[in-house]
Amino acid sequence: MGAGHGHGHGPAQVAGHATHRHRWRLGASFGLIGSFFVVELVYGLVSGSLALLSDAGHMAADVLTLAAALVATKIATRPDRTGRRTYGSYRAEVFASGFAVLVMLGTAAYITIEAVGRIGRDVEVSTGPMVVVGALGLLVNLAALMLLRGGASESLNVKGAYLEVVADTAGSVGVIAAGILVAATGRPLFDTLVALAIGMFVVVRAVALGRQVVAVLGQHAPEGLDTQAVAGDLAAVGGVQDVHDLHLWTLTSGMHVATAHLVTTDAADAHAVLDRARELLRDRHAIAHATLQVEPPDHVGCDELGW
């Protein structure tokens, strides 16, 4: 005897999806940063500042990341007409976050290679444009941070963009500091050192985000969810005597999924057990999509699977 419940990815679920709710934040940030990127690139070339150029490169990574995030959120909300994507296209957002990681690492590698190549060379740096453009870039990044912060805790996609802008904000501060130090000492080495520091900071943020992306794609249990605790709560549901084949994973930000087999007692009402278990997963563990198989105590065959 088995019982289950199906869920669709219809308009109501899409409307409640974390990244979909915050898509406007991504769009507004894309407009701000995309507009300023050209300014920073031009003045980076004019001033000869590697720190400013590296920050412009990182801002280019921001633009690419935000564009990928916007495209991914659009794809994620499209209904599946092929019949093959049974979970919809929500994972597009996770792939976009993975793309953000690759862009961040590529930017950091470029910055580091250029900085190392400048060591020992006599380079002329115009500090005036550095400080002015760095200050303007800081204001733009702070505005973008305020926009993205509201969705970063709910959406991995928005968090990827947020971390990109955090790193770029630090880069703007570094550009300002480098301009002041070079102007005060006459030593362009400070420009190179700041560029290296920006590169290292970008790597740290990229690795942190990359670990989260790998956890989702590897179908690890969602962060903050204890598998043993969930199993114990299900086992404590009235009418349940055993829980096995429990699997927990994240489809995309804010969408956790669970499957489990619940073995009932002889006198248990399977439908009541199913309803109580689903309510528990939804209310206590924020798992709205659960596929549960309810089995009588004399059911056999579950131990035949070899993996």
TrEMBL record:
The keyword Ion transport applies. It comes from the Bacteria. It is found in: Membrane. SUPFAM superfamilies: Cation efflux protein cytoplasmic domain-like, Cation efflux protein transmembrane domain-like. GO terms for molecular function: zinc ion transmembrane transporter activity. Belongs to the cation diffusion facilitator (CDF) transporter (TC 2.A.4) family. SLC30A subfamily. Residues 29-217 form the Cation efflux protein transmembrane domain. GO terms for cellular component: plasma membrane. The chain crosses the membrane at residues 26-46, 52-73, 94-113, 125-148, 160-183, 189-208. It comes from Actinomadura soli. Its main location: membrane. The keyword Translocase does not apply. Keywords: Ion transport, Membrane, Transmembrane, Transmembrane helix, Transport. This is Cation transporter. It is a multi-pass membrane protein. Residues 222-296 form the Cation efflux protein cytoplasmic domain. Signal peptide: none annotated.
